[in-house]
Specification:
The complex is a heterodimer of chains A (150) and B (438).
Chain A: H1 2-8, H2 12-32, H3 37-67, H4 83-99, H5 101-104, H6 111-115, H7 122-149
Chain B: H1 2-6, H2 11-21, H3 40-67, H4 98-124, H5 137-164, H6 174-206, H7 209-214, H8 242-260, H9 262-265, H10 301-305, E1 311-314, E2 318-321, H11 323-328, E3 332-336, E4 349-355, H12 356-362, E5 370-375, E6 384-387, H13 388-392, E7 397-402, E8 405-406, E9 416-418, E10 431-437
Helix pairs in contact in B: 3-4, 3-6, 4-5, 4-8, 5-6
Chain lengths: 150, 438
């Protein structure tokens, strides 16, 4: 038992749980994969890759542009006190765009004929929400500045 | 074991050690990740919220599968489910709002979890680049399982979001992709929770919430060094406090809730759902509530208005009714909502028509096991099988009128099924034939 654990690298229960998990996942995958193996695999792995290797670096890049150079912990100066007041509304607006991308960019061809609802308002509503978020954030920033100088 | 330790390390193990100690430049070096916020406490906070939320989303998803009564006729959109349908039960008609609540929760909680999921994935990203990439067989298998976990969760969220916005780009039938994808994900999720729960409990206890909520950006310091590769060995100064990061994620969830949830409440609240697919009612008037699919989109505008339309009722007897004859049968009214798998729903509408139980009686099958419903609609959910309990509920109708007016074309004129607590698409519109099975 101990030798098995040593060769394997963890407690044997670890192995048993993973094998049971793979069996369930494998059964489910086998029911759907044959219908379109390449398409589904591309979507499945692509989803993780898109998030990990595109969205996270993009987020990090925008963050860096906003905050400027990285500050060492010993450095007391805060170079851009307004940066978070851009970062937060920007992040929230981007979140809404990501979640409602098909509606905002009118990617669905059947929305209007299916629902009878107008498809052309999403972009405007998203822009208005974005403007409100930036305005609120700006007001909070001004209030902070005033309370600091007061 | 002691014998092995005394032997000098082999060439292979020395080589392995050398590789492990020299990660290539870039994200595989732990110092590359410099946020002072990353650490087991923050990851555990996100993880616990996700644990609770994902349980809600998964269980309501399972209930939605049961609500389709997949054991009947050709209701099952995922006939290969086999043992994955182990929990199936006869879907009840009471309370009539149950599916409205469970499916509203499924979609709304799923959407609200997105910022938490993004925060969680951000917090553990250094582990994607862990060096060496594989330390042991156990490590390799666990990483494979994590691919199923992360690939699965993103796959489920993206297919769900695309489907509720009618963007049918996914590689196959939504029902089977989302259903089997959920099982791949949950299999990986259960072992992940089992492996990590002790760390989560320990990490949550390692810091005081009160202290965290009092600490501003200037006083935000990294968590103590950990053995989970989350805390940066080379942290930069904080650009936001931990409470700020939590507020951003929580604020994102709150914002998503506000612009989505109204579509599941209906009434005036619907207008708050600014970005949700069902953000407003199609029109005023008795037939002005949400339409799942229009007659026009299905090419039924002419067929549904054909004066030659007849309803065939079959069982022990075979009968045919025109619409006036149906209106001449005893009429009943039931106040029932429409609740869609896409998460939106309407408040209760006053439907009027003939009880399905009365039609079963006329067909000579007073206690049917099921009824097979056929419609002018040829694609999608044109046919449905309902169970005996659904036929016999006194509020289950073949509806001819709604809110005091004739059904509109889009709501299923000349006649449609409406059954309490039934998923929207099983309330078949433009019905042509009911076959009661004894």
């Amino acid at each position: 038992m101990r030798r098995l654990a040593q060769t394997y690298g963890a407690h044997p229960l670890h192995l048993v749980s993973l094998l049971v998990s793979f069996a369930v996942a494998g059964y489910a995958a086998y029911q759907v994969l044959p219908s379109n193996p390449v398409g589904i695999a591309v979507w499945f792995v692509g989803a993780a890759v898109l998030h990990d290797l595109v969205l996270i670096p993009a987020y990090a890049l925008v963050d860096r542009l906003l905050h400027g150079r990285r500050r060492e912990r010993s450095d007391p100066a805060v170079p851009r006190p307004w940066a978070n007041h851009v970062r937060v509304p920007l992040a929230l607006s981007a979140l809404l765009l990501a979640v409602f991308l098909p509606a905002i960019l009118r990617l669905s061809s059947g929305y209007e004929s299916t629902t009878t609802l107008p498809a052309d308002g999403y972009l405007w509503r998203w822009l208005v929400i974005t403007a409100v978020l930036f305005a609120l954030s700006g007001l909070v920033y001004l209030a902070r500045l005033r309370s600091r100088t007061a | 074991m002691s014998q092995r330790l005394e032997q000098p390390p082999s060439r292979l193990s020395r080589l392995r050690q050398a590789v492990a100690e020299h990660p290539p430049p870039g994200p595989t070096r732990r110092g590359f990740w410099r946020s002072p916020l990353r650490g087991p406490w923050l990851t555990s906070v996100f993880g616990s919220v996700l644990l609770a939320g994902i349980i809600v989303v998964f269980v309501t998803g399972l209930l939605s599968y049961a609500a389709y009564n997949p054991d009947l006729g050709s209701n099952d959109k995922t006939p290969g489910a086999g043992p994955l349908g182990f929990y199936l039960f006869d879907w009840p008609t009471n309370p009539s709002w149950l599916y409205r609540v469970t499916q509203g929760l499924h979609v709304t909680v799923g959407i609200v979890l997105i910022p938490v999921l993004l925060g969680k994935l951000w917090s553990v990203i250094p582990k994607l680049f862990t060096w060496p990439p594989v330390r042991s067989l156990a490590h390799a298998l666990e990483r494979l399982s994590l691919l199923l976990l992360v690939g699965g969760v993103v796959f489920e969220f993206v297919t769900g979001l695309a489907n509720i916005q009618y963007w049918y780009v996914f590689p196959g039938s939504f029902y089977s992709l989302h259903f089997y994808g959920a099982w791949v994900f949950i299999a990986a999720f259960v072992v992940h929770v089992a492996f990590k729960l002790p760390v989560v409990v320990r990490s949550l206890r390692s810091r005081s919430w009160r202290e965290e909520l009092r600490t501003d950006t200037a006083h935000t310091v990294p968590e103590p060094p950990d053995d989970h590769e989350l805390v940066s060995p080379n942290p930069a100064a904080a650009t936001i406090s931990r409470r700020g990061a939590l507020a951003l994620v929580g604020g994102g969830s709150a914002l998503l809730f506000v612009v989505t949830a109204g579509q599941s409440f209906g009434g005036v609240l619907r207008r708050t759902a600014l970005l949700a697919p069902r953000f407003t009612d199609p029109s005023d008037g008795p037939n002005g509530f949400q339409v799942n699919k229009t007659a026009d989109a299905l090419g039924l505008t002419e067929g549904a208005q054909d004066p030659g339309w007849r309803l065939q009722v079959r069982g022990a007897e075979a009968m045919t009714f025109d619409r006036d004859q149906l209106l001449g049968l005893p009429q009943h009214t039931a106040a029932l909502p429409i609740a869609c798998v896409e998460g939106w729903s309407t408040s209760a509408q006053a439907w009027a028509g003939v009880r399905l139980a009365d039609l079963a009686q006329l067909a000579g099958v007073p206690a049917p096991v099921s009824v097979f419903v056929e419609s002018l609609q040829e694609s999608g959910f044109g046919t449905t099988t309902l169970r005996g309990n659904q036929v016999l509920d006194p509020d289950s109708l073949l509806a001819l009128r709604v809110n005091g007016a004739d059904l509109s074309l889009d709501h299923g004129f000349p006649a449609r099924v409406i059954v309490p607590n039934n998923p929207g698409v099983h309330n078949t519109k433009w019905v042509t034939r009911l076959t009661f099975e004894a």
